[in-house]
């Protein structure tokens, strides 16, 4: 169930970003600006997907405070 929820959420985010790009094309955003916006939107989507896959560090993996490293 949890995996299907994540996939549904990923689909919602992907469609939202795609819709934003389509709306920008339809309202006539210039091509050079659209290229910059596309890179930004793909970066946002990449951040969204990679943030989910990184696991938080457990307390046993925390660095030693006494070593000074």
What helical percentage do the residues reach? 55-70%
What class would the helix/strand composition place it in?
A: mainly alpha
Query: How would you state the average pLDDT, rounded?
Result: 75
**Regions with pLDDT < 50 over 5+ consecutive residues?**
none
**Termini distance?**
41 Å
Determine the number of helices (DSSP H or I, runs of at least 4 residues): 2
- Main β-sheet: number of strands, strand sense, barrel status? none
Structural shape: elongated
Number of strands: 0
Task: Work out the strand percent.
Answer: under 5%
Please trace the helix and strand order, writing H or E for each element: HH
Task: Tell me briefly what this model is.
The chain crosses the membrane at residues 12-31. With 69 residues, this protein is an all-alpha fold.
């Amino acid at each position: 169930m949890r995996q299907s929820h994540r996939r549904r959420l990923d689909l919602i985010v992907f469609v939202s970003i795609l819709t934003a790009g389509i709306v920008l094309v339809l309202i006539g955003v210039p091509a050079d600006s659209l290229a910059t916006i596309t890179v930004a939107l793909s970066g946002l989507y990449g951040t969204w997907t990679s943030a989910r896959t990184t696991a938080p560090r457990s307390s046993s993996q925390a660095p030693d405070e006494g070593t000074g490293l």
